[in-house]
Design goal:
The chain is α+β, with helices and mostly antiparallel strands. It has 8 helices and 6 strands. Bound molecules: 3-iodo-tyrosine (IYR).
Length: 234
């Protein structure tokens, strides 16, 4: 299978992929260093945002960011993800209502004292205004298996890893396009399948409100681990 944009992927591919040449132009070391440093400076400015402006975002930016996420590597190239771009305000209200219901139960004790203590410095609570305030909302689903036309289940591999990588790429794409986002993980998330009418092979993975920070947006003054705290050299 070659990779032209016009060709549509189909799950029926028992044969080995045909090999095609891959010869990206080599980036000279100096240029590579400059690009890495510039990217690092940009990515260090990414912050998780909980207060969004209601200003609309260009929908094409959301579509392109989802398309970036969908370039992620995946187990056996099974691409086990579905990104739901939620536009209907009624549906968004329903998501917020159900999420806040679950979150109230969580914050009222389901999370347990240790977890609540870990969250306390962030000051999060069960009120999720961003689910209706942010102009964009992307709900990411993982496809635990693929359902054949005859109803047979075909297992997908490394689904958590694959979808996690894709969400990381989604966040990077949104940030580098100038938009802010938040990874929200209401738990349990089963209500999302019902509200969004997703099939049984899909399981909600994360809810990602997207937009511009509100004019009075504030974020915690947190510190990221230094490189020598996250990297060891062997
Ligand atoms: N899902 C809850 C709780 C929560 C959990 C973690 I770990 C966070 O980093 C933030 C929140 C919520 O979205 O509020």
């Amino acid at each position: 299978m070659s990779s032209t944009a016009e060709q549509r992927w189909s799950p029926i591919h028992g044969d080995a992929y045909r090999s095609v040449p891959y010869r990206p132009q080599r980036v000279p070391a100096a240029e590579s260093r400059a690009r890495a440093a510039e990217l690092l400076a940009h990515m260090r400015q990414r912050r998780t945002v909980r207060q969004f402006s209601s200003d609309p975002v260009p929908e094409q930016v959301l579509r392109d960011a989802i398309a970036v996420a969908a370039t992620a590597p995946s187990g056996a190239h099974q691409q086990p993800w579905t990104f739901v771009l939620v536009k209907d305000p009624e549906v968004r209200r329903a998501i917020r209502e159900a999420a806040e219901h679950e979150e109230r139960v969580s914050y009222d004790g389901r999370l347990g004292e240790e977890w609540l203590a870990a969250l306390r410095p962030l000051g999060t609570d069960a009120v999720k205004t961003h689910l209706t305030d942010a102009p964009g909302l992307i709900v990411v689903f993982q496809q635990r298996y693929w359902l054949g036309e005859d109803g047979t289940k075909h297992k997908h591999y490394y689904v958590d890893e694959s979808v996690g990588i894709a969400v990381g790429m989604l966040l990077s794409a949104l940030h580098l396009s100038g938009l802010a986002a938040l990874v929200h993980t209401p738990s349990p998330m089963r209500f999302l399948s019902q509200v969004l009418g997703r099939p049984e092979n899909e399981k909600a993975f994360a809810v990602v409100p997207v937009g511009y920070p509100a004019d009075d947006c504030e974020v915690p003054d947190l510190v990221r681990k230094a490189l020598d705290q996250v990297m060891v050299e062997v």
